[in-house]
Amino acid sequence: MKPRYGKWKHRSGLETKFKTATLEKGYNLGYETSSLSFTTRPETHKYTPDWTIKDGWYIETKGYLDLDGRKKLLYVKEQHPEARILVVFQRPTNPIYKGSPTDYGKWCDKNKIEWCAFGEVEKWEAFIKEALT
Q: pLDDT (tens digit, 9 = 90+) per residue, 43-56?
């Protein structure tokens, strides 16, 4: 079992910061309330986004994006093209692995995955507002 952070019992400190920030903006997003199944032959898995705005609109908060996490995002994107997922990074300039010239943001750009930094409040707030209109 992963450690729990804050009074909402999130899995990371970034998730708790994001919850606090969205509440301050007047948004009460569902935490890990949705899941999308995906297949990596021969197995079927379940992806549970951190935040559900409404069906089909999700936010994933990431402090660390390892190889398995990158693969999962690609599978879900391929198998659920209708879903909109915004990845909010704590540090989007972190390299995808030690010594890599590719950082999280560049990797997302290359793979056409929507992303922003946690500090770019206007970007993640615009995503939430778009989903709610």
A: 899 999 999 999 99
Instruction: Give the per-residue pLDDT at 69.
Output: 96
Reading phi first (left if > 0) and then psi (alpha if -120 to 50, else beta), residue 12 is in beta
**What value does the mean pLDDT of the chain take?**
93
According to DSSP, the residues that pair with 51 across neighbouring strands are 31, 59
What CATH code is assigned to 13-132? 3.40.91.30
- In a 3-state reduction of DSSP, which class is residue 31? strand
Residues contacting 70, CB < 8 A, separation 6+:
96, 107
85-122 residues labelled b (16+ CB within 10 A) or e (exposed): bbbbbbebebebeeeeeebbbbbbeeeebbbbbbeeee
DSSP character string of 119-130: T-HHHHHHHHHH
- Domains of the chain by residue range: 13-132
Structure tokens at 38: 């995906």
